[in-house]
Design brief:
Radius of gyration: 22 Å
Shape: globular
Order of helices and strands: HHHHEHHHHEEHHHHHEHHHHHH
Number of helices: 19
Largest sheet: 2 strands, antiparallel
Strand content: under 5%
Helix content: 55-70%
Distance between the termini: 80 Å
Structural class: mainly alpha
Length: 449
């Protein structure tokens, strides 16, 4: 077979698989879209390693697990659903894992990872039997928006603390940090660089901001110079299979509550993002997203694989909007993203230079993007506004995503009934009301006598 025939065969395979003509796109445009999305979401390689590192996990292993779970998720998204959407471990889930489960509840990360494995298995089964789609449709739209916004504000708060911009205070809980600390200025610099790039709509703004802040830290000596840039892939041994090995430790009400919250948070995150991105790409049909079941399966399988390798649940990335904006319309975009994550595996030495102060601006900026969902909440109706507000504000104030979700689902049915709107309550919402009461009980938040 000559080169001409080979090229034609490849072109035919690409067309049959990704439907370029039908979606009015081509290989070049999809490749540019994939590169754009990857640059926009590559920060998760370093941010995820730093956040889970605070829980006591090996950063190198988490780096590898992050990349591999993204490769699996993006590849499945390409071939199962044919959508230009990137998948990787989500910021909200890793924040809940580290700051709520491990650091606040005192659960060892090994046991907490076993909870992620169980949640992943349940999650996959729920997707297979399409229960996930049914429950997502039943949850009030305003509470979905409030959850996204609350997680965003919580993530931003984590970034502000990590960068030293806000610190603990005995009198007022938190206060402005000292601006005489040199490393705090790294966060301030990175924040403004990223904000300016975002305002100019520069693709990969967050990644470029991290790069610029890291370079400033290296030049000024605030960050030690790494011994090398390229190396062999870090071993997965410190985290691989740890969750499976600790399944027997899931024997407390606390862990059951953690699993439920992991399911709930992950449940709503990807679905909302998928629909929003499909809307942007013009892929919605009759106000519904075609092949959403397949897209959810791609997310579920990558989450399951990631839990075994040693990382928190995956999610569809809002940063995929950058690739869609430059023309990405098919799964070939996702395939390019997967390829780039594969190459990134060889750059793990950069973990030592991407410090908490460097990644803090990314958390603050991403938090602000997630908080934008607040504008769609029906604030004019008090019965909706109050539970939405409590959901949002409780997450950063309690440093616990699960409590924020619980506040919303405990108040929403009560205010709706008081407003004479009992018939609008879905049975799923009532079930969740009692689930969260049980969760607070087993976490010793509610009295036992």
């Amino acid at each position: 077979m000559d080169n001409g025939q080979t090229t034609a065969t490849k072109a035919g395979w690409l067309e049959r698989t990704f439907h370029f003509k039908e979606l009015k796109t081509n290989t070049k445009r999809e490749t540019v879209a994939g590169l754009t999305t990857f640059v926009s979401m590559a920060y998760i390689l370093f941010v995820n390693a730093n956040i889970l590192g605070e829980a006591g996990m090996d950063k190198g292993a988490v780096f590898t697990a992050t990349a591999l779970s993204a490769i699996i998720g993006c590849t499945l998204m390409a071939f199962l659903a044919n959508y230009p959407i990137g998948i990787a471990p989500g910021l909200g889930d890793n924040a809940f894992f580290t700051y709520s489960v491990v650091l606040t509840m005192g659960i060892p990360w090994q046991t907490a990872m076993a909870g992620v494995v169980v949640a992943s298995v349940i999650f996959t089964l729920l997707s297979l039997f399409k229960i996930r789609e049914i429950v997502i449709d039943a949850i009030p739209h305003d509470l979905k928006l409030a959850m996204a916004a609350g997680i965003g504000i919580f993530i931003a708060f984590v970034g502000l603390k990590g960068g030293g911009i806000v610190v603990a205070s005995k009198s007022s809980l938190v206060e402005l940090g000292s601006l005489t600390v040199p490393t705090t200025w790294l966060t301030i610099f990175g924040f403004f660089v990223t904000a300016l790039l975002m305002a100019r709509r520069v693709p990969g703004s967050i990644f470029i901001g991290i790069l610029a802040t890291t370079l400033l830290g290296l030049v000024t000596g605030l960050i030690p110079m790494p011994d090398k840039i390229v190396s062999s892939i870090p071993s997965l041994a410190p985290t691989f299979g740890v969750g499976l090995a600790n399944l027997g430790n899931i024997n407390t009400p606390q862990m059951l509550a953690v699993i439920i919250v992991l399911l709930l948070v992950t449940f709503f995150d990807t679905a909302g993002t998928l629909v929003g991105l499909a809307q942007q790409a013009g892929l919605m049909k009759n106000d519904k997203m075609p092949r959403i079941g397949r897209a959810l399966m791609a997310d579920s399988f990558s989450m399951l694989a990631g839990s075994v390798m040693g990382t928190t649940p995956t999610a569809a990335y809002v940063e995929s909007s950058a690739g869609i904006a430059v023309g990405g319309r098919t799964g070939f975009t996702s395939l390019v993203i997967a390829g780039m994550f594969g190459l990134s595996l060889f750059f793990s030495p950069l973990l030592s230079v991407v410090t908490t102060e460097v990644t803090a601006p990314a958390l603050i900026i991403v938090g602000s993007l997630m908080a934008q969902s607040m504008r769609f909440i029906n604030w004019e109706k008090f019965e909706i506004a109050l539970p939405a507000f409590l959901t949002i504000i409780a997450m950063p104030l309690t440093s616990n995503i699960s409590y924020g979700i619980a506040f919303g689902f405990l108040v929403y049915p009560i205010t709706m009934i008081a407003a004479g709107r009992r018939k609008e309550l879905n049975p799923v919402v009532i079930v969740l009301f009692f689930i969260f009461i049980a969760m607070l009980y087993v976490l010793n938040i509610l009295p036992h006598n």
